[in-house]
Specification:
- α2 links the parallel β1 and β2.
- The protein has one domain: Rossmann fold, CATH 3.40.50.2300.
- It has five helices and five strands.
- It has a five-stranded parallel β-sheet, sandwiched between helices.
- The chain is globular, with a radius of gyration of 14 Å.
- By secondary structure, the chain is α/β, with parallel strands linked by helices.
């Protein structure tokens, strides 16, 4: 999928480390994606409430605030049953709760891994949009 195709897709990045969030957001934007950012699970759910078109959620597991990445993913999946989820964590203190179709990348991850995963996970969504 080329950059022109990516620009039609929106990724929500949920990451409490601002420098990590800034870096991955810049790389995904450079790859052609539209990027929304959230520092906490609560901010991520605000994006859900605002109802923007989100095609994939990329969330850290351990977040500041009441909600963690598992909670964020489950909330989005409750509303959008096919929404692709990418999880990441440098460490986990809870057992994995990865939703079906989700992918986990341990930190540190390669930005190229995330970009490739976004392409794979959203490929069917893009094809579906083109047919409409």
């Amino acid at each position: 999928m080329d950059a022109a195709a990516h620009c039609k897709l929106t990724i929500l990045i949920v990451e409490d480390e601002w420098i990590v969030r800034l870096a991955i957001a810049a790389l995904l934007q450079e790859a052609g994606y539209t990027v929304l950012e959230a520092e906490t699970g609560e901010q991520a759910l605000s994006h859900l409430a605002e109802n923007p078109p989100i095609d994939i959620v990329f969330t850290d597991i351990m977040l500041g605030g009441r909600l963690n990445g598992w909670d964020v993913a489950e909330a989005f999946r409750a509303r959008y049953s096919e929404l692709p989820i990418i999880y990441t964590s440098g460490y986990m203190t809870t057992p994995p709760r990865i939703v079906d179709g989700g992918i986990f990348f341990p930190k540190p991850y390669s930005p190229d891994q995330i970009i490739r995963a976004c392409g794979r996970l959203t490929e069917h969504q893009f094809v579906g949009r083109e047919a409409q």
